[in-house]
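Blinded run. Sample ID left blank on purpose so nobody reads anything into the name before looking at the predicted structure. Input follows.
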Amino acid sequence: MQLPKILDLFAKNRSLILRMSYKDVTDRYAGSALGLFWALFYPLFLVGIYAVIFTFIFQIRINQGSTPLEYSLYAIVGLIAWIVMQEGLTKSTSSVTSNTSLVKQVIFPVNILPVVGILVSFLTLIIGFVFYILVVAIALPQDLSWIYFLLPGVILIHFIFSVGLGWLLASLAVYFRDLKELVMIVLLVGMFVTPVLYLESSIPPAFKWPILLNPMTHLINMYRDVLFYGSINHPWSFVIFGSLSLIIFIFGFYFFEKLKPFFANVL
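Blinded prediction complete.
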């Protein structure tokens, strides 16, 4: 069984993972005047720009009579989840190839390198959703729901999926160095074949099934059910994405373990 081995990996290296994640964040903004502020400002600025464009320029509304704020909140939930996925997978794809010296150390747990990249990206997600809930609490207090308590569970499922996929991509990137650029292109295109910014009701019938087959659609549905709708409108999304995440998590670890002994020779 791979799952006990994975849990043991996290348990034994939890302090190392946290230290490396902290170092990754601080090193990236070392010497800048605003420091860690950029880690928060850039993704929130990007989310704000998208929200303003689609709300006030294209004037998209949830339904007739709804306010611009409602669509902005709808779009922001999807955007935060997508931007974090994009950043995490990009980082994890190059996590092994960019740490050659660590990979060649026999005693270093190479498996944690993709995990660090994913964990750092999730800092943005947590801060972003905290701000989201604060905005709802101030502007639409009647929309606050007990179902927000499910948010940590959704984040955990998202994290498991990201780590599993990160292990797969990181191990393949050792042999295919152009994979990072390919992943960035796929994620860029993927944003437009996932209901991140547009409404489910606006999807043409011919495209409904292809979009439903996109696993990221179910991730966005889960976040919107918990944060925007305040009710479980897409129960199958929780079942489908939850099951898929566990499968990817276990298979990704198994795949990484099989290729790991050859990394040092290839690098």
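Unblinding after everyone has recorded impressions. The first helix runs from residue 2 to 28.
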